[in-house]
Amino acid sequence: MIVESNVPLQPYNSFGIVARAQHLARITDEADLVALRADPQWRDAPRFVLGGGSNIVLTGDVKPLVLKIEIKGLRLVEDSPRAWIVEAGAGEIWHDAVEWMVRSGYPGLENLALIPGTVGGAPVQNIGAYGVELQDRFDSLDAFDLETGRSFTLDAAQCAFGYRDSVFKHVRSGPNDFGLSGRAVITRVRFRLPKPWKAVVGYLDLERKMEETANFTPSAQDIFDWICAIRRAKLPDWRVLGNAGSFFKNPTVTPEQCADIIARDPKIVHYPMDDGSIKLAAGWLIDACGWKGKSVGNAGVYERQALVLVNRGGTENPVTGGEVMTLAKAIQTSVYERFGIRLEPEPVVV
Ligand SMILES: Cc1cc2nc3c(=O)[nH]c(=O)nc-3n(C[C@H](O)[C@H](O)[C@H](O)COP(=O)(O)OP(=O)(O)OC[C@H]3O[C@@H](n4cnc5c(N)ncnc54)[C@H](O)[C@@H]3O)c2cc1C
User: Which of the listed residues 93, 96, 171, 263 has the most CB atoms within 10 Å of its CB?
Assistant: First the structure.
């Protein structure tokens, strides 16, 4: 394995931000990680793990050694009466892996089609869309501990999945703390796809598709195709208009806080949660503050969905990470001033 120097990262992040990695190693299997740890030059060097770069904001050149995860492989590891267990290398493109599973007759992840990024990046924020979260179809994962040089396996409980959250987003701050951010490299993920397969179609957009097509018993392939069509119509293609998907998490509030906001803004989009809290649509809050279509430098708020911040400068004059974060902070301030709610960014700021 060769460690490359001064590597442009613009092709490796979905915002299309210009930045360079001082050093970058392409990790194609676990042996590459073992070799790096054995090399005195890299053994103790700080590192940054890069998947598909679809959930990051680069605010400058990356000084830590970039580990670009390119571990491949897709296979059925178990076919029991209760589930298919499919294993995927962390460097597989997420959408391609989902498509392969649906086409191969292992359905269950079709609602998560067309989410950019890699298989290894998916557990980090427990990706979710259209009524399914990664944790609903998760079996276990293998990871490599950069501190100890050991490999280990985690089940769902050990991953501590939450809403756009997992143990991989937290830094270990004490002996009883299990944060693995900056420490664990996910190398393989196994999915548990329950039998019999059941369609998840409780979302308005999917209900509309059923009405439109008069198909009320869709197959996994139908749902896969519908999700792709819905997402293409709603979200900008990051290859054309750089972005990192939803820029803020949907905040949760107490019923009292929600009632207070409804009294002032009766149209607020909100969803009751199983635990009694209320989830608010962050996009609606941003839109209500008048941000849709606005820009700061080359960072803009997407005209059709206020939750998506976009690169208005293309590849020629691309947005900077600084512009994205200035816009994000201005949005946070106005939402806080109007609603008293602090929006939390979803992407990782590097
Ligand atoms: C147009 C668009 C739409 C999107 N839609 C959705 C959506 O519907 N739902 C949703 O949840 N997300 C969505 N996202 C966000 C993003 O696609 C996901 O979070 C994705 O899983 C990120 O994967 P990645 O490989 O690109 O990770 P990266 O952006 O490369 O990295 C993100 C974080 O994960 C860490 N990481 C990456 N790979 C590994 C690994 N192998 N081991 C350990 N740590 C790792 C990185 O260090 C970093 O901290 C969208 C993004 C875009 C651009």
Answer: 93
pLDDT at 269: 87
- Structure token pair of residue 264: 């002032």
- What CATH code is carried by the domain that includes residue 21? 3.30.43.10
What is the CATH classification number for the domain harbouring 339? Answer: 3.90.78.10
Neighbouring CB atoms inside 10 A of 102's CB total 21
At residue 172, the pLDDT reads 80
Report yes or no on 28 lying in a domain.
yes
Q: Which domain holds residue 57?
A: 3-69
Residues with CB under 6 A from ligand 1: 14, 49-56, 69, 90, 115-118, 120-122, 124-125, 127-129, 168, 184-186, 235, 238, 243-245, 348
**Rounded Cα–Cα distance for residues 13 and 244 (Å):** 9
Number of structural domains (the chain) is 3
How far is residue 295's CA from residue 345's CA, in Å, rounded to a whole number? 18
Residue 281 exposed, middle or buried by CB count within 10 Å (0-12, 13-18, 19+) = middle
Instruction: Indicate which CATH number applies to the domain containing 94.
Output: 3.30.465.10
Query: Of 55, 111, 144, 169, which is best to mutate to test ligand 1, by the most ligand atoms within 8 angstroms of its C-beta?
Result: 55
Over residues 131-169, the pLDDT tens digits come to 999 999 999 999 999 999 999 999 999 999 999 999 999
pLDDT confidence bin for 282, thresholds 50/70/90: very high
- Reply yes or no on whether 323 is catalytic: no
Q: Which helix (H) or strand (E) holds 198?
A: none
Mean of the per-residue pLDDT values of the chain: 95
